[in-house]
């Protein structure tokens, strides 16, 4: 494994300049398919007897560089990039699980993931028990005979709870199931889940990794540590009818999972990333460290400022002393607590909507991790489809506003919020005098 630091690997890992025509920037290999030398060469590629590109749904040289780079940054053995963060989650779970299997997941999850686990996968016979992740033992308590995976977010979106990855990974190990950690909000600059025992790491590359709001993408990184031959995963130990009788654990050993994601997952579900988007994401990844440090700095300062505003009823940011997650945040995210801040306002649902409408620098949209500041009122938008109860368990109260704090000057961000707060104050005053 390389001894190079994050900033260096983010610029260089996976890109062999000489074998890529001397290119200093990673080129876009915009080609659907790749020419075989002859039929024997083709047969070898399909038989996995030698490495090489076949078809961009399965592999592509631009994507390959991004995959190697992400694996290096996470300390994993390999990665697969996908069309979106949700594609990364769905492809991972569908590669691992079959009808009748069960997931234990943190109740504090991204809305899309919550729906996948709560509504869509049950239609295919895969069910989930959601647990309060603040006590790692809850995962074991919810584990059944057919449980095959634990799923968490390192820094929950939008609850902003910091999870004790190490403690949860110990529960996963005791139950002989892999731990999947969605590391989208924290990014692998702030925390490397594999170092704390995660078996599989998920990223939405759409967010901080790309950072420019120009491309959707996702990634699956395999730590290479899980024992797929432990008796719970016949998918890996019995001959695969979907790949001419291949027994993954015999041939691919500790790379069994990530290999199956590619050669059966990408092949059959088609959740592959466009090389053009891979290129775009590589541009962003080069500066991830610089950006996430500044996002974290701006977010902390803004969170402290919000605490002093009379229209603000509560502020949640893992870097604040008042946060119940401060201790875990300092332990797992010593370099910064990322760029998301949530807060509540006087006047609840209606005021929160007004603020989302009246800010000008903060764009009202459903995304996070952009260089530009973003705002959303989840209860009326991203989490609107969830029941009141589900909104509560995912931490989305009616008055909650989520900010994705960008890289603008902090004074301008404060001024923008201030003018929106003033409108809310005036409305409330008016209503009380009527
Ligand atoms: C956005 C997000 C996803 C989904 O990623 P897409 O690229 O939008 O599909 C998954 N997990 C978390 C935590 C996210 O914020």
Write a compact overview of the structure shown.
The protein is an alpha/beta fold. It contains 17 helices and 12 strands.
Describe this structure in words.
With 434 residues, the protein is of the alpha/beta class. It has 2 domains: 6-284, 3-Layer(aba) Sandwich (Aspartate Aminotransferase, domain 2), CATH 3.40.640; 290-433, Aspartate Aminotransferase, domain 1. It is built from 17 helices and 12 strands. The chain has helices spanning 6-12, 39-46, 61-74, 85-96, 111-123, 137-141, 165-174, 187-190, 234-237, 248-251, 256-269, 275-285, 288-307, 326-332, 348-358, 388-393, 410-433, and strands spanning 78-82, 102-106, 127-131, 147-153, 179-182, 200-204, 218-222, 312-316, 340-345, 363-364, 374-376, 400-404. The strands form 2 sheets. Strands 1-7-6-5-4-2-3 form a 7-stranded mixed β-sheet, with helices on both faces. The chain is globular and about 85 Å long. The relative contact order is 0.12.
């Amino acid at each position: 494994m390389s001894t190079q630091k994050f900033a260096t690997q983010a610029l260089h890992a996976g890109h062999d300049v000489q074998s890529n025509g001397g290119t200093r920037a990673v080129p876009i290999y915009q080609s659907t398919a790749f020419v075989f030398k002859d039929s024997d060469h083709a047969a070898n590629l399909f038989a996995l007897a030698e490495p090489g590109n076949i078809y961009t749904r399965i592999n592509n040289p631009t994507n390959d560089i991004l995959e190697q780079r992400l694996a290096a940054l996470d300390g994993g053995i390999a990665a697969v990039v996908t069309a979106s963060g949700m594609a990364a989650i769905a492809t991972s779970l569908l590669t691992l699980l079959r009808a009748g299997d069960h997931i234990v997941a943190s109740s504090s999850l991204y809305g899309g993931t919550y729906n996948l686990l709560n509504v869509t996968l049950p239609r295919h016979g895969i069910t989930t028990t959601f647990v309060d992740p603040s006590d790692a033992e809850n995962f074991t308590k919810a584990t059944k005979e057919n449980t095959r995976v634990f799923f968490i977010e390192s820094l929950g979106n939008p609850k902003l709870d910091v999870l004790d990855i190490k403690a949860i990974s110990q529960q996963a190990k005791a139950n002989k199931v892999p731990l999947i950690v969605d590391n989208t909000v924290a990014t692998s600059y702030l925390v490397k889940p594999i170092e704390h025992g995660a078996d599989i790491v998920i990223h939405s590359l759409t967010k901080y990794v790309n950072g420019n709001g120009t491309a959707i993408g996702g990634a699956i990184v395999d730590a290479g540590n899980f024992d797929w031959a432990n008796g719970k995963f016949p998918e890996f130990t019995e001959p695969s009818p979907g790949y001419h009788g291949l027994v993954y654990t015999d041939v691919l050993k500790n790379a069994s999972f990530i290999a199956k994601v590619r050669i059966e997952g990408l092949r059959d579900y088609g959740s592959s990333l466009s090389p053009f988007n891979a290129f775009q994401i590589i541009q962003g990844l080069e500066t991830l460290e610089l950006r996430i440090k500044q996002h974290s700095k701006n977010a902390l300062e803004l969170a402290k400022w919000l605490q002093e505003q009379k229209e603000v009823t509560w502020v949640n940011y893992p870097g604040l002393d008042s946060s119940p997650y401060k201790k875990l945040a300092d332990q797992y995210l010593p370099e910064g607590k990322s760029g998301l801040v949530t807060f509540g306002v006087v006047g609840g649902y209606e005021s929160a909507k007004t603020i989302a409408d009246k800010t000008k620098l903060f764009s009202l949209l459903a995304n996070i991790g952009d260089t530009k500041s973003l705002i959303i009122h989840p209860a009326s938008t991203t989490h609107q489809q969830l029941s009141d109860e589900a909104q509560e368990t995912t931490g989305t109260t009616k008055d909650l506003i989520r900010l994705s704090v960008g890289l603008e000057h902090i004074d301008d961000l404060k001024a923008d919020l201030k003018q929106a707060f003033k409108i809310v104050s005036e409305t409330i005053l008016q209503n009380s005098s009527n």
